[in-house]
Amino acid sequence: MNGNSSLIDHFTKNAGVYDEHNRPLAPIADSLHLLIRLILKNAPERSRVLCAGVGTGSEILSLSSAFPEWTFVGIDPSSGMLDVCRERLRSAGVLDRTELIQGYVNDVPQTESFDAALSILVAHFLKREERLNFYQAICARLSENSILINAEISYDLNSPEFTSMLKNWEAVQLLMGATPESLADMPRVLREMLSVITPGETENLLIQSGISMPVRFFQAFMISGWYGRKDS
To answer: What is the pLDDT of residues 40-77, one digit of tens each?
Structure first.
């Protein structure tokens, strides 16, 4: 998976304002993080957790405060996002429990074995043909019976309901400062710039990757989340 260089440049350029830009959506993120903590509450006391597309470190900050013995590996192709992540983790006193890697999941040695892995709002940035390899790469680094949690923008853009859902999605974008021009361009962005696939397609890809019975545990408009255990 080579990644999209223009997308990486975008995240690197905007890393310093990324969290502020997304602050209006904090209630959604807080709800998702709460459910993630509940799903993982019975993981081993000294779990090692992989965060694919770690961004500014929100998932690590959420989990590290709840599970003080856990350690983390965060990977992201954007140097700017990792710089912000590093400073946030340092300020929270958890940088010493975290290894940060600039790159992609395949850059994490396969000798690593994780008790859980997270991919939160990452997969829709990958091309459709890259998705299976992405999920497979994560699963290959999970120990047997460990949990993968995945959340992404996922919806049937050809469904009759999409017109109504798009209005809700536009309301979300307005909270984040969208312009009339960007709102008008939203259908094209979802279809062409992002890789938004249906929930059924996502579930099938997770199963093909080695996750048995993925469970959809979260939905906030077009954001959906699943968890499942790696096949034994």
So the answer is: 999 999 999 999 999 999 999 999 999 999 999 999 99
Distances, alpha carbon 212 to alpha carbons 35, 129, 136, 189, in Å = 20, 21, 13, 32
State the CB neighbour count (10 A cutoff) for residue 49: 26
Give the model confidence (pLDDT) of 97-115 as tens digits: 999 999 999 999 988 899 9
The secondary structure of 16-80 as a DSSP string is: HHHHHHHGGGHHHHHHHHHHHHHHTTTS-TT-EEEEET-TTSHHHHHHHHH-TT-EEEEEES-HH
C-alpha span between 155 and 162 (Å, rounded)? 8
DSSP 111-152: T--EEEEEEES-GGGS-HHHHHHHHHHHHTTEEEEEEEEEEE
Backbone dihedral region of 108: left (phi > 0), alpha (psi from -120 to 50 degrees) or beta?
Answer: beta
Sign of CA dihedral 93, 112, 76, 147: negative
Quick one: pLDDT band at residue 1, thresholds 50, 70, 90? very low
Inter-axis angle of helices 58-66 and 26-39, nearest 10: 50
| Tokens representing residue 45 in the block | 């006391």
